[in-house]
Automatic annotation (TrEMBL):
Cellular component, GO, one term: plasma membrane
Membrane topology field: Peripheral membrane protein
Subcellular localization: Cell membrane
Keyword ATP-binding in record: yes
Domain ABC transporter positions: 7-251
Matching PROSITE patterns: ABC_TRANSPORTER_1, ABC_TRANSPORTER_2
Family matches, as PANTHER family: IRON(3+)-HYDROXAMATE IMPORT ATP-BINDING PROTEIN FHUC
GO biological process: iron ion transport
GO molecular function terms attached to this record: ATP binding; ATP hydrolysis activity
Protein name (record): Iron complex transport system ATP-binding protein
Organism per entry: Xylanimonas ulmi
């Protein structure tokens, strides 16, 4: 079944100063699905994701959001929405985040409610419930009153993730959300990403470096190389030995896990084949 995209970029041309680094890329994020952006360093993943979040200017092309299907409304140009309306629909966990000081964890998570609140208004019951829920599912409930400037990188990562979730948007964009996280929280974050799509119908766009993570979590994969899409589609169709070897510039074998049916990626370094 083809599901209409919730947010998409059309023919995106993006750059820095006068240098174009993304050359006509199309990305479609479907409601209830996880779309992983993968590719080597510098291939344009973060720039594309940031443009979808309106954090990077679009030189050519457009970012669009689905209209209200019930009202049969047309798609809207993301650039035409007010900052507040856009923030009610799209949130992003960026790679570089502010380092707030003098605030506790719960205060920071409460920032996620800003698009839903009137200025200076106290937190509503809905705000409190959203904050509690976001903290519970990211496992930071017991850190509520800890000062954020005293947290480890991984703990802070989960606080920012909770802040995004508290925003309760239909589109969630995550730039390397497993960075800094230990194995357990990597797995829990990927589980959370799947939950967002499957249980909440969220359209999730996620930049991942670990291709096995991408294979395990994504419905759609977009493989970028030098600012262009090499392949897009289901993980097994995109994460092939041919595509990956071309993109990463080294031999990469791909096998299928007999238990899960998912692809597994095996890069062949110079010491490949070492037995001990
Ligand atoms: N602030 C900047 N000023 C100038 N060029 C930049 C800037 N940020 C990124 N670039 C360049 O834009 C290109 C795409 O970068 P981008 O960060 O989008 O890639 P990426 O695929 O996310 O990389 P990585 O995996 O290393 O995070 C790269 O060539 C990079 O050097």
């Amino acid at each position: 079944m083809t599901v209409a995209p919730a947010l998409w970029g059309e023919s995106l041309v993006l750059g820095y100063q006068r240098t174009t680094v993304v050359h006509g890329v199309a990305v479609r994020l479907r409601a209830g699905a996880v779309t992983a952006l993968v590719g080597p360093n510098g291939s344009g993943k973060s720039t594309v994701l940031r443009s979808l979040a309106r954090l990077h200017p679009v030189d050519q092309g457009a970012v669009r959001l689905a209209g209200d299907a019930d009202a049969d409304a047309d798609a809207v140009d993301a650039a035409a929405l007010s900052a507040r309306d856009f923030a009610r629909r799209v949130t992003m966990l960026a790679q570089s985040r502010p380092h707030p000081s003098g605030l506790d964890v719960r205060d920071v998570v409460a920032f996620g409610r800003h698009p839903h609140r009137r200025r200076f208004a106290p937190l509503s019951d809905a705000d409190t419930a959203a904050i509690d829920r976001a903290m519970a599912i990211t496992g930071i409930g017991d850190m509520a009153r800890r000062a954020v400037d005293q947290l480890s990188g991984g703990e802070l990562q989960r606080v920012w993730l909770a802040t995004c979730l508290a925003q309760e948007t239909g589109v969630v964009l995550l730039d390397e959300p497993t960075n800094h996280l230990d194995l357990r929280y990597q797995v829990e974050t990927l589980d959370l990403v799947r939950d967002l799509a499957e249980e909440h119908g969220t359209a999730v766009g996620v930049v991942l470096h670990d291709l096995d993570h991408a294979a395990s979590v994504a419905d759609d994969v977009v493989l970028l190389h030098h600012g262009r899409v090499i392949a897009v589609g289901a993980p097994a169709d995109v994460l092939t030995s041919d595509h990956l070897s071309r993109a990463y510039g080294l031999p990469i074998d791909v096998t299928t896990d007999p238990g899960t049916g998912r692809v597994r990626v095996h890069p062949r370094g110079r010491h490949h084949g070492r037995t001990r």
